[in-house]
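Blackboard transcription, Thursday session:
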Amino acid sequence: MARAIEMAAENARTGCGGPFAALVVKDGAVIATGVNRVTSSNDPTAHAEIVAIREACRVLGHFQLTGCEIYASCEPCPMCLGAIYWARPARVFFAGTRADAAAAGFDDSLIYDEFQAPLAGRRIPMVPLMRQEARRAFREWQARTGRMPY
Amino acid sequence: MARAIEMAAENARTGCGGPFAALVVKDGAVIATGVNRVTSSNDPTAHAEIVAIREACRVLGHFQLTGCEIYASCEPCPMCLGAIYWARPARVFFAGTRADAAAAGFDDSLIYDEFQAPLAGRRIPMVPLMRQEARRAFREWQARTGRMPY
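(Written on the board underneath:)
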């Protein structure tokens, strides 16, 4: 964790992006690292945890981080928490909290709050459309033999 | 939306990934598309919305989708919903629901439920560690002149 915090501080100092870093560890060894690169790569999804998870999966050649641990310099935002559930590591350690992030000007807490709001009452409106037609795509999925669940 | 649903069905049919697709529209024109590529690219973050958002930001040369609309063939999972909040489009249209996704074997609903659970009671344990030390990274961020908020 000390290394993640040092990388986060360094990332803020050099102007590469926000003060966040993450490491993925497997069997006691660091297999991937990531720092926030949102502004330097024009990619709003380039949070430290996402960058580290993508790199770790590339290294492992698999879309799951079974048996891995993630060390994040700050509590994951909702996007990164979602990514963690899809990657399914064994556990996650984090240092700063969502309150610390909010105090430094990051929206994490606001986004967590939005998850509780009904669709119609959200800051970004979510509009349902063509649900019946969409079932076709799920039927194609379920009809396919040899589909790979994830 | 009809095009997003067709792309989602095609993606399931060809075995590229899950039955999901998304489009980003600006000023009435499609500027980016994405389909689910989790299993074909070994990337658990390669959901349709994430792929489309990254591509749209690349096209626009910016980390925000101001004034854009997203058409998703299914209600975004928590990871993608988080990414949408960071990208800040004007609005989101979706066709299938999280219940439809769950019925087809996708974890979206389970992950939404986990967001309500206390840290200690989650399926993937979240362990706080070294919070005081982590404040250093935020101090570096706040001390930096010319930092770019996102």
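Lecturer's comment: The first helix of chain B runs from residue 2 to 14.
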